[in-house]
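So, is this right?
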Amino acid sequence: QVQLVESGGGLVQAGDSLRLSCEVSGRTFSSYTMGWFRQAPGKERAFVAAISWRGSATYYEHSVKGRFTISRDNGENTVYLQMNSLTPEDTAVYYCAVYRRAYYVGNNYGETAAYDAWGQGTQVTVSS
């Protein structure tokens, strides 16, 4: 059974940085595209970033491009999200997820339905 455990969230001030981690077990991590999503209060879960199984391709939601960086360490079964220049609009619960299909990333990388395993989430709160 696949398990994803996120960590690294917290309360920070605007302009600060955080790095989220997500460790995956129960699936061949290096075979799957990974994604980060976030859900703010009263809103639907939304795409933040994705990275292909080898890390050769990355994808970002437009509001985080240039501020956030997704990366992975296949030897450690871990995907990261480095978040810089945080703003109060980045406040949300952040989730990592495993793409359904191995060795593939389709045009649906930004859709929650494209992923079949999720972590429990980690809270990020940015104060102004």
